[in-house]
Design a protein that fits this description.
By secondary structure, the protein is mainly β. It has one helix and eleven strands; from the N terminus they run ββββββαβββββ.
Length: 142
């Protein structure tokens, strides 16, 4: 499969890349500098638009290193990029730390994982089939 990528900002955009062969995620990089004050969120642009393969979605996931070292993560993780979206890929980062976090052009800010999508038909029903779990709700497994 191919992921088709268009640079929207040639000066600051860097193509997604795998850090290691076989990695599930492609690293995404900031296209410009952004400061994120403690307790706040900012949209970080990648300067890229993508064309996902049919029948897939792009999941925007956090980087564990940013979370561990700086308490910075993707706010709406995982973010979803639908196959029909052609706008700029933006990453919503939130700073849970006590100090401002400075994103610089070229900083790895997130990962893109391309996954299959199962299309379902929504059918309304008056009843559902019974299961052992039934309606135990949140925390039902302990």
């Amino acid at each position: 499969m191919r992921l088709i990528v268009k640079r929207l900002d040639r000066a600051g955009a860097r193509l997604p890349e795998r850090a290691h062969p076989g990695d599930a995620g492609l690293d995404l990089f900031a296209a410009a500098d952004v400061d994120i004050p403690p307790g706040e969120a900012r949209l970080v642009g990648t300067g890229l638009a993508i064309e996902l393969p049919p029948g897939t979605e792009g999941q925007i996931r956090p980087r564990s290193g940013l979370a561990l070292r700086h308490a910075v993560t993707v706010l709406n993780a995982p973010g979803t990029v639908d196959a029909g979206y052609r706008g700029e890929i933006g990453i919503v980062l939130v700073n849970h730390g006590r100090e401002a976090f400075r994103v610089r052009q070229g900083t790895k800010v997130a990962q893109l994982v391309v996954t299959p999508v199962v299309e379902v038909e929504v059918v309304e029903a008056d009843a559902l089939s019974d299961t052992a779990r039934a309606g135990d709700g949140f925390g039902s497994t302990g």
